[in-house]
Design a protein that fits this description.
Elements (H helix, E strand, L loop, with lengths): L11 H24 L8 H29 L11 H29 L6 E3 L3 E3 L9 H34 L3 H5 L4
Antiparallel strand pairs: 1-2
Helix pairs in contact: 1-2, 1-4, 2-3, 3-4
Length: 182
């Protein structure tokens, strides 16, 4: 299997980044929903958010790598069978997913650093609190983080449905290209 993207399909690196990010986003969403329901005396009350933050910051680093990789190894061009609106929709859809994901992670960072303390990443190192003086930072960023997370998973679900539509209804190679097949 090829590492880099070709004109007909995605390479191994792009596929691992794509599916890894997708699984991580849905996992973080589930973890976030679960941890907000934890009681004060629950043993996971501190560990759940710490894990969520560590995974989120790791995802941020992976997303930076993904953006660089996209520049180094551009994705295959849109299929010739795509109409104008499908091409425009795909371009804006992918851009929206990237922007929404980065905005969600940035809002999470603002929640976690509102008190001026850095964020420990799996106990290995701390990411410093660079922004902590915004009025009601934790509350406002918390609301934004929550709403963006919902938008992100809903839109990612629509993205998956679009891929399935291409595969089963249009019978084109949109989905199989991201699965490493021609």
């Amino acid at each position: 299997m090829q590492l880099r993207n070709s004109s007909s399909r995605y390479g191994w690196v792009s596929m691992v980044l794509h599916w890894g990010v997708a699984i991580t986003v849905f996992g973080l969403f589930a973890l976030g929903l679960w941890m907000v329901g934890l009681g004060y005396y629950d043993t996971w009350r501190k560990a759940g958010p710490d894990l969520h933050k560590s995974i989120g910051l790791t995802l941020f680093a992976v997303m930076l790598i993904r953006v660089v990789w996209r520049l180094v190894s551009p994705p295959p061009p849109a299929l010739a069978s795509y109409g104008r609106w499908t091409r425009i929709g795909a371009t804006f859809g992918h851009l929206f997913l990237y922007l929404c994901l980065f905005a969600t992670m940035f809002a999470g960072y603002l929640i976690s650093t509102a008190e001026g303390e850095g964020i420990s990443v799996f106990g290995l190192f701390d990411v410093p609190a660079l922004i902590s003086s915004i009025p009601d930072q934790a509350d406002v960023a918390g609301d934004i983080h929550l709403y963006l997370a919902w938008v992100l998973v809903i839109f990612a679900g629509l993205h998956a449905l679009a891929a399935l539509k291409h595969h089963f209804i249009d019978r084109d190679t949109t989905l199989v290209r991201m699965l490493g097949r021609d």
